[in-house]
Amino acid sequence: MLKTTSLDKVDAGTMLPLMEEFYTIQGEGFHKGTAAYFIRVGGCDVGCHWCDVKESWNAETHPPTAIEHIVENAAKYSDTIVVTGGEPLTWNMLPLTQALKAKNLKTHIETSGAYTLSGLWDWICLSPKKNKLPEGKIYDEAHELKVIVYNKHDFIFAEEQAAVTNENCILYLQPEWSVREKVTPLIVDYVMQNPKWKVSLQTHKYLNIP
């Protein structure tokens, strides 16, 4: 269990339940192919049945880590930092992003948007989920909308989400990995008929890198 003092610092955002951190290639969306340092924060109650990092859901299994330590590690590797989860907006992201910005690092987030947007971000990837929809403000701030396609009904959801997202947001449809052979042809056909959308693939998995 987290100690009370650690819980207070996690709630304030000066410590975060760090699951893992690693330097790799961004595999998805607009910045695919870009070298980036990933910070994966524990804690998520969105509960996607196809989530491939379910071990991130329980924040108590990941050690509260001072953001100074996280930032120090990140600055060694890359000027592009991607904060992901879990659901990073479970926590206050302002202290972490302020510290990253103080090092002149670019801050990206991958989020479902299920909680209030916090932090200073150069790039916001919004990946909404049906069972816990984004809070309103993030629709106006998102730079890319990435909808995961598990079945044909997700195209309807994608259009509903695109309709409430800002006009400058780049729209992506991405096959859920476990059913990619089934849904990728559907996505290709859909994008060809609706060219406002783009195809996003998990290229890091094809490249066999983290």
From TrEMBL:
Family: Belongs to the radical SAM superfamily. 7-carboxy-7-deazaguanine synthase family.
GO biological process, one term: tRNA queuosine(34) biosynthetic process
Species in which this protein is naturally found: Aggregatimonas sangjinii
Subunit structure of this chain's protein: Homodimer.
The Radical SAM core domain, residue ranges: 31-210
Residues binding S-adenosyl-L-methionine: W50, C51, D52, G86, S127, P128, K129
Cofactor entry: [4Fe-4S] cluster; Mg(2+); S-adenosyl-L-methionine
SUPFAM superfamilies from the UniProt entry: Radical SAM enzymes
Cofactor remark: Binds 1 [4Fe-4S] cluster. The cluster is coordinated with 3 cysteines and an exchangeable S-adenosyl-L-methionine. Binds 1 S-adenosyl-L-methionine per subunit.
Pathway the protein acts in: Purine metabolism; 7-cyano-7-deazaguanine biosynthesis
A GO term, aspect molecular function: 4 iron, 4 sulfur cluster binding
Enzyme class: lyase
EC number: 4.3.99.3
Keyword Coiled coil: no
HAMAP family: QueE
Residues where [4Fe-4S] cluster binds: C44, C48, C51
Protein's recorded name: 7-carboxy-7-deazaguanine synthase
Keywords on record: 4Fe-4S, Iron, Iron-sulfur, Lyase, Magnesium, Metal-binding, Queuosine biosynthesis, S-adenosyl-L-methionine
Primary role: Catalyzes the complex heterocyclic radical-mediated conversion of 6-carboxy-5,6,7,8-tetrahydropterin (CPH4) to 7-carboxy-7-deazaguanine (CDG), a step common to the biosynthetic pathways of all 7-deazapurine-containing compounds.
Top-level division of the source organism's lineage: Bacteria
One matching Pfam family: Radical_SAM
Gene3D superfamilies, sorted: Aldolase class I (3.20.20.70)
PANTHER family in alphabetical order: 7-CARBOXY-7-DEAZAGUANINE SYNTHASE
Reactions listed under catalytic activity: 6-carboxy-5,6,7,8-tetrahydropterin + H(+) = 7-carboxy-7-carbaguanine + NH4(+)
InterPro entries tied to this protein: 7-CO-7-deazaguanine_synth-like (IPR024924), Aldolase_TIM (IPR013785), rSAM (IPR007197), rSAM_sf (IPR058240)
